[in-house]
Here is the input.
Amino acid sequence: MTDPTRTFDVVLFGPTGVTGREVARHLHRRAPALGLTWAVAGRDRDRIEQTLAAVGAEPADILHADTDDRRSIEAMVGATRVVADLVGPFVRHGEPVYAACAKAGTHCIDPCGEIDWVLDMIRRYDDRATESGAIIVPTAGFEALPFDLGALLAAHLLHERTGLGVASVDVAVTITSDRDLRVRSAADAVSGGTFASGMEQIRRGRPEVSDPHVLDTGHGRSGRYDLRPRKHSGTGRWLSPMVPSPFLNPPVVHRSASLLRDSGDTIHAADFEYREGVDTAGMLPGLLAAPAAVAGSLLAVGMGTLTGAREKVRRSIVSALERVGPSPGDGPRPEDLDRWRYRLDVRAVDTSGGTQDVVVEADGHPGYKSTATILGEAALALADPEAPTPDGAGFLTPATALGLEVLDRFEQAGMRIRPA
Here is the structure.
């Protein structure tokens, strides 16, 4: 035990969903090797015990915690150094955990993708978390941990080599699966939690979602997304906007740049920009890549337009989409989770046109298996006093909370980040 004032190093809150059970599996394998203790928490002990038995995980304890019971949340938070929160949708269940962690000085990490809600939480709890020493890291799954860390490594290496500010980072994403894998439903391909986050954002209709600088630290920058189909600056391949939502990663990467700038870091230029897209050629034959990029662009533009539509229109469309889309907790068969892979081709460009390429490769379904293992590994890094993570507190990003010195740890989570 690393902290005698806390019973556990990591508590996994919500282990019974598809992603939660994979986090439990990862913690069971990795925590003892690091000399760390872990527990799980939730409402239904019987269901939790069944899940743990199914994945062969043996935490030190099972705690009762319910977001409708403030005292139970505070007791859970007070018993650990880090909470790995998998209870979503976070706009409905996340605030009690953030409030308790900010008060107690307990770190919290989750895969939340509701960017407008994260903005509200930053405004409400960032000062309190900074004062208590709590590190709170939303969007620490496939969205946006590998993108944020890959962008930071590319920017760092380029700045180290040239001494110039990094003007832009461009990321191309390729997602692949075994050729004989049959996708049975939308939930097999798109995380139910990510889909629910996108639907919540449309339902709320917050215009802030259309600004990639919405999470910046107050420098007055604003911008708009360019959702047109295009070719990646490094690979030259056709890119479509990210699906199901292109509005999750850019605000996180821009917040990282602004937090680093606030700390006196000169890596990023003042007008730094970040772009990303899905490599359609990685999923379709060459002649179909460009039309697929156009179709993805139209879908993304449509989602952006919906956030500004009238409430009645938004609710009607969301209701229709939810009838055919995956639900939180839905997912592919457990035996299929390891049959997916993804790759990020990251290119940083400095103010003189110099470039640096970085590759991120990861094993497992992006929204379920990879999200679970990288989030679990990140939670362990935050809990481990031997991990060389940066100093800081408050609402951070994966890059600013974890830094570059722990990148090799993610190999234990099936993710490799390296210069190209």
Summary: The domain at 145-364 is CATH 3.30.360 (Dihydrodipicolinate Reductase; domain 2). The longest helix spans residues 286-306. The first strand starts at residue 8 and ends at 13. The mean pLDDT is 89.
